Each structure stands twice: as C-alpha cells, then as structure tokens.
Amino acid sequence: MSSAFPQVLVAYGWSEDLEHAFAPHREAGLVPGRVAVVDRGRCDVITEDGVLRADTAPVVTDDPSSTPCTGDWAAVRTGEHPAVMALLPRRTAIVRASVGRDSHGQVLAANVDTVAITVSLEVEVDLGRLERLLALAWESGARPVVVLTKADHLADPDELDAVVADVAAAAPGADVVTVSPLTGEGVDVVAAVLSGTIVLVGQSGAGKSTLGNALLGEDRLATGAVRAGDAKGRHTTVRRELLPLPSGGVLIDTPGLRGVGLFDAEEGLQQTFSDIEELAAGCRFGDCAHDTEPDCAVQAAIADGALPERRLRSYRKLLKENEWIAARSDARLRAEQTNRWKVIHKAQRQAYKLRGRDR
Fold it and tell me: Which residues belong to the signal peptide in this entry (predicted)?
C-alpha cells in the first residue's frame, strides 16, 4: 500500500480502487476528499488533514446532476483558496426529477451502498409512495432496505405482522425491518442490516433523524415532533450531511422528501415490480397491456388474489411518469445536439466568408 494512502479517509469508504482512480489527480498536486455538505456554491470536504471549506465553481456545469453532492469523492486543491477541481466517477447515485420538473435530474447522494427507506407506523403506510422510493433506490445501484419506524405505535403483534407482510409484498427483493428508536427495540437488527455508506430517505416525520441518532449512539441530528392531525413533521434536517458511524460505515441524513419524481428509472421500476414482470412473461402476447387481452397472466393473478390490483395501478402510474420525463430528457438532448450543429455550421459559414474575402 502506498505511503500516500489516506488512512483517515478509510473510515469514510476510501479504497484501493478509489486510490487507483485518483492517481492522475495526485500527480497534479491535488488531495482526495469526500464531500460532506454542499451549500451556496461551496462545500465541506473531509480530507486527510481535516475538513476544508472548498469552492465548487471549477466543477459546476449547466447540468445539476453533475455538480458536487454529499457522498462524492473529490480531487481538491488545498492552500489559501481550496477548491474542488474534479469529481471521481460515482459508483452509485440517487437521482430524482428536479423540483422544477425540467429535463435534468437532481442527485440526492452519491456513492451510496444502502438506502434506508424510513416509513412511519404512526399512520397508515402509503404503499404507492413506498414503491416510488423503492424504484428510486433500486435505480441508484444501491441496496434498498425498508425500515418501519415507530413500531411501538402498533401494540397488537398481529396488526404489526399484517403491515409487515403488506410492505414485504410491495418490496420484493428488499429487506424489511421494524424499529422503535425511542425504546431501542430493533435498533441492533437495523444496524446489522445496514452497511457501507447509508442514506436515510423518507417523508418528514418518518423518524429518519431519530433513527440516525440511534445508529450514531448520540444526538447529532436534530429531531422534532410531528403534527397530531396527520403525523407529518417539519424539515428538522435542512441539508444533507455525512457522518461516520461508530460501528463502521457512514451515515447520510437527508431532508424529508415531500415530492419524489422519478428520473430515468426504468430498471428501478422493473426491480420494484419484479413480481409483475415475472407474471407478464406468462402472458399470451408479448406486448400485453394487462387489461382485457385473453390469457393475461397478470389479470389472472389479480383475479385469484395473488396480486393486488392496487399494485398494477401503481406500476402503470409510475411507468407513465417515467416515460414522460424520459421523453423530456430526449427532447433536451436533441435540442442540445441541434444547437451544437447550428454553432458548427455558423462557424463554417463565417470561415467560408473570410476565405472568399482573402481570394
């Protein structure tokens, strides 16, 4: 192992692969670091020599999805004016549609290993919203885990088991665990299931910060009460930050997500609704819309109770939304390509004019 290997960063996920990818930047006199917090054109970067407040201007582009975010590994210029000069390729990235619903995506966190989708049991679980978050998580390349928080609100074990069964049916392939951070019940199980760089996502009031504090072993994250009427909370977490866990790994807490739009999440949807995808393989027609076609395996499963009709409706809704944003992205790319050719053609015409004058 090289003497320059940044041992301090190992706790934040630094590896031999990252060291290899960083080699050209080290030769340029830059140092590695992991972005902990981003705000107002600057970011806090954890380096071997401590936390630097660095300018992000050198790597900012017109595409917000390529700008620095919490979890990024960066090549940093130190000295009197620290700055992020380059970002290392992301292994994974949680990307949602931008708040303005334009053709760009917004990265919530980068280089994540586990997405902990926190869902409060204080109110009825919104399975459609859960499926949306699962698609987001699967598409990122990270491993989703559904964490049902505030389990103490369901004192009846049978009722709790029924909710867990419904959630598990809506989350094929994902672990589902229950926890009550206030009593401590289930925290050890959650800690065992989550690994690597962990990001907490979910609505305000779902108990993300309370769970984060339980995993951290101290009250580092701000928490707040929820409204009595709908059990929704305020954004006690106002920015994403990265914190090392005492048992190993790194935690990223995020502000509550009120609206989560999918962005190019076709593979994530296929994984989230893998049960429907598997059933569809048994339909008579390869392009079956699972509506009134004969010998539709999906409709047959609904008829015999094996598949909830709600789940098919959710699948169709999210597919339609994803196709819409994909069409917008394609339109933007086509427009950018057209504009690029216009610039080239204009330059060529100018060159021809100048060449004619010289003759």
Answer: none
